[in-house]
Structures
1.
Amino acid sequence: MSSAIRISREVSRVAGESTLEVVVEGGSARATYSSTLSLRNFEALVRGRRCSEVPYIASRICGVCSHAHFWASSLALEQALGIEVGEDLATIRDVCNRLQLVQNHVVHLGLLVLPDYVDRERLREYAKLALAANSSVLKALNTLCGRLTNPVGYSLGRLLTPVEARHLKVAAGYLREARGYVAELSKAVLELELPDLEDPAPNYAALSQVNATTVPAGGPYHLATPRGTVELDEANYRSVLQEVHAEYSTSRKCLLMGEPFFVGARARLLATRRSLPARVSRALATNPFSNNYAQAIEALATVDRAIETLEELSSRQLKLGSSSGAPGGSGLGVVEVPRGLLVHYYRVTGDARVEEADIVTPTVMNTYHIELSAANLARDLASRGLSEGEIARYVEALVRAYDPCIPCAVHVVIKG
Amino acid sequence: MRVAILGLSGCDGCQYNLVREDFLNFLQSRGIEVAYWPLVGAEEGAEEYDVALVEGSVISARDLETLKSLRARSKVLVALGACATLGGVQAGLGLSKPLSSFVKVDYYLRGCPIDVEEVVDLLDRLSRGLPAGFGERRFDHVERPTRVIAEGVIELDGSKCVTCGRCIEVCRRVGAHVLNYFRRGVETEVITPYGEPYSRAGCILCGLCAAYCPAGAVSYRLDVEDVLQGVREGSVVSVYVEPEALASLAESEGLTPLQVVAAVKALGFRYVVIYDPLSEVGQVGGAVLARSPAEVRLLRRYLPGVRVELPKPRVPPGAVYVTQCLSWKALGLRAITSRELQLALRRLSYPTLGEENPDAVLWNRGSSEMKRVGSLEELRVALRENHRGLVLEVCPGGCLLGGGQPLTLCTDLREVLRRRESKLSELAKALGRANPQVY
């Protein structure tokens, strides 16, 4: 039996057509992810620009997680410019980054994941929950930094709009409002029966607990992997996170020291070794679909932690100052974002302009792993005699579990 | 009404902002059907649409094909956000083009990202069969002519200008009339008369245009990096700081004035001199004293026939003058504003700061023989008397609003002035105690 299932989806952030083609032949399966890009080429776009402009440009890489790009570029540039950021400022930025993570997770789970698993009636209820959670989190985010897409409240090393105790209190209030909705949504997700799938390469990477916050005040960055901790710096990040150009695609793929790996909520939970119910932790360790569980857990835990942090901050005098040295040199910014690790690297001239930029996105890191998992899944399902349409539906759900990008996971065309 | 929402080459941020409870509730309440919206999984599509909202710019052939096909099937096509209306951030590399380069666009919703309220407003009107009040149906996309006026202290970068007119308004209000609109319609731009440099256009360098510009199109030259470089190299060793500048820095940073002195020394300056140019003034009977070059121009304009004197700071080579007023920068003096000094100071970590005394004080506060006059009548009388100096306050105060004075978190300007005045007294008191030789 031979069946070729072509799953093609819009990848708007890189503007082009990306397809995941799964071919099952006999007992083996192969999956190839390829894309025809129309380049927006941010790495070239920021060359020669003043450092202070770059985070604003970088945040426009992706309107869904623009905070992520803002922070990763800020961290890298602050390192390159020798700016040391005040402790509380770093914490507030961290909270903003986390809130974007929650916002992404609830929208993704409520509007894109649950439709795969629940009936229409319940779906309407969950979508309402997700949107309600979303709007409360947005209010909190707006209080702290102005807006969700392309933040305007910060610049390198400082806040542009004043954040005072009262803002923090108001934001915490919105989050308490959101917490109820997020908790209910998480519960619904954790009750789902996810499809079975053996993880073909249970190899992951996430910032370890040494970098307890998602936006640490600069490196060094410690990556937790199943084989221990790897320190990531400007000199070695390219050999740890190796990017390869696949021949059949203009997009890039990434390996962790030569091996396929995954990043994201599941990797983060595995790295922190949180104690969880046996069913969930077993799934996390072995099943790629369980990333959806991880997102649900992470969303709720993050809201709780953000409330705690904001309350702690609002009860004392804030230290928002920062200090700086001489510009020049290079910097690396690594941030945990909704879909995994985001790495920005910049080399900067003495007059604080960008000389070279390099960006590694989580979707690039996950690509190989998606291919392997999709091939495994399609082979299993084919051997159980499922039809092409059904296989495609499962593969689609798998891609959605990775959450490569919201628009990446929704458009499916099957060609026989 | 049947709607399609679609992204071409862009970041999807505009569409993502629409995934919101209130927007979806609005659609439901108006009975608007979103038949096609791949971002949230609505990908069935329909043959024809009443309204198509298109985000992103055109980069690839596929973008173009999608756009043309959608245009042919939609009654109204709306460009959603900066990429669709202008080409977006990627247009910087010449990669992308706006929708209107290829198809007719009926409405433009601007912003990066868009304002959701505007989308709601437009769809609301269209769904009720009303013409929408905004948008530019008449115009195809035109490249707006822009120019850069860069000579001198203040710079105007027309490519960033959004022609909001705030700079024109404030410039008119202070009586300088340097900026105005040029050309009409979509070609409107803001320039100085004939696009001349500010210095030749009667600018008084109050800095208000730069402070009021919401788009960063008008800015003033920052010299602080040069000065710090000089400090590192040893060519700048001392700083002459106006007492007002010191006091306002103390207020905005929440320090005592003498802590600011310590902070300035921590930047690498060896000597800190508190210096008021008015202390240089001898007998100037029959003249009005201006406190800044900005004021000179205004006084000459307002009081023709009256002699106006400007005490020039005598700052030795190797020193930098820290002032509240931007206009000193135009005099060939090595000067930075206290706002610039604040930028440098913000890089220091404050908690470890002690207090230090200045190395010298040239300031005549308290024993001043200057007379402040409040009206022209008073001035006329005072001119006949013999005073050491006359001061008529005509300055528009561009410094406080963002020209030269440091930024403060307090939003009530009167309160800011009050606090700065009290810091000034605090400074006078501290100096009186520490250094009886104040004169």
Note: The radius of gyration of chain B is 28 Å.
2.
Amino acid sequence: MQRRTFLTSAAAASATLLATRATGASGNAPTASGLIDTNVYLSDWVIRHSWADTPAKLVAKLRRHGVTSAWVGSFEGVLHTDIAGVNARLAGACLRDSGGILRPFGTINPALPDWEDDVRRCHEVHRMPGVRLFPNYHGYTLDDPRFARLLELCGRRKLLVQIALSIEDERSQNPALAAAPVNAAPLADILPKFPRARVMLLNASSRILGTNTALLRRLTPAGVLFEIATLEMVAGIEMLLKSVPEARIAFGSHVPYFYFEAALLKLQESALTPAQMDAVRSRHAQAAITFT
Amino acid sequence: MNRRTFLESSAVSALAPVVARAAGTTDPAATAWGDTDELRQLGIWDVHAHVGTPGPMPAKRMERLVQIADRMGVERLCIFMSPPWHYEPTPEQFRQSNNDVLAILKEWSSRAFGFVYLNPVHTKESLAELERCVADGPMIGIKLWVGTRCNRPELDPIVNRAIELKALILQHTWIKQRGKGNLPQESTPMELAELSARHPGVAMVCGHTGGGDWALGIRAIRTRPELHADLGGGDPVCGEVEMAVRELGASRVLYGSDVNGRSFGSQIGKVLGADLSVADKKLILRENLRRLLLPALQRKGIKA
């Protein structure tokens, strides 16, 4: 399905839901559609000890809070060179320990030799729904030709491309591991050239999801999906959707780096319609990895 | 019924839907609050709030903030620094900011405590403002931001007068790029520890506890028992709250949100998500701040 068709059908589905769902007293009712956490990691971030030192602990936490599917990357992918090994371990851990909820998103580093084979393995060997990129740690920008090639390849293979714009607040990074956040602006011009590509931004923060919505307004028509792990301001989701109603916002926690409850409570803080809540909790995410 | 009574009863009843929602099945974040209703029914006190929500007038902005606070079980907010913000405000600028907070307190004293915003570089004017807003006015604390480094001698007369007035001092601190990225007059927790050493026994709040580099900030204030860690303003990184409690003790850790820039959700989530006892979480979410503010509240005859 081309991105334009995908966006049109997703919008139509939203409108239908709004029209048919009763507006009950509580606009924030959880639904039977589940909770997809689109921003989760296995392994320690190199400067922080993780409480989730086994996948089983991570899964137990997520299940306790009603997560029905967790899209998991590996922090190892940020600094390791043997990306194939990272992705194999990630896939294995998800298969062995997930309790059925962990979906692996393998790392791709297009600055490495033969990176295209990592894409092939993610798709054909590990059956992943998508891949996750760390451009600021891997030394390329989003106007790099290798990134364009990656979009083309992943679009063809029907893999969602997640781009982690940051891992941590750049103001407090260990000086030995400093990386400025990824500049997402080039996507507005690049994505229309790859209509089959689907892109999601992780940890977009106030640079994109804050009061200055200029870049959000440019990226939304390009089909970009966002998540809430670094979305702030009081009632941030509600305010953002009032400002840019067409923005596609999904649930994401950045667990185990962040406290999971931080993201969950944002759903309580914002007054959302049932359709909006459904969309944030799972519908946008599910649509992003559903290719017809 | 006068407006104050109405507002007070509304505040209590406004919390009821939050509690009811938590106990029922219609709350998207019910599991965040734990297995019992203890924390949901606590009535959270927030040490760090800016009234930057949308609205044509300060009181209207506060109305919107309270509406959202009610969804999150936040009962009291320490408010200060009405926008626009100036890094190194003139006396005219910080007086105007305080005027907005005073206007808010006229209508919302049942939900807010005011902290007077000062710039110690203007020592005489800051002391005059302290008289206006705290000694003779309804405010009970002092907010210091980035007007001057807090280890400078200009702060000493302000601290001395704060002691007399029993006003709690909240000093903004942050550590950016290990201090190299701080604004010219932006303080660090290390500098607050220096100020504290000149005023032993005086309780002060380390705003943001260094922000994202809280692991450094907590270490910096560890040896000053009168310094309290404000958790608000940084990302909800796992381990921050646990480290603060481990190194400082739960009684020295305060929940703060730094709304409107931050959300209530991410900042309360830090505490609810931490691997701590319910008793410790209650201290952090309410009791510690109440204990610190009690002398000022009693001085003004405020029951809370």
Note: Chain B touches chain A at residues 21, 25-29, 31-32, 53, 65, 68, 71-72, 174-178, 181, 211-214, 234-239, 259-270, 272-275 (CB under 8 Å).
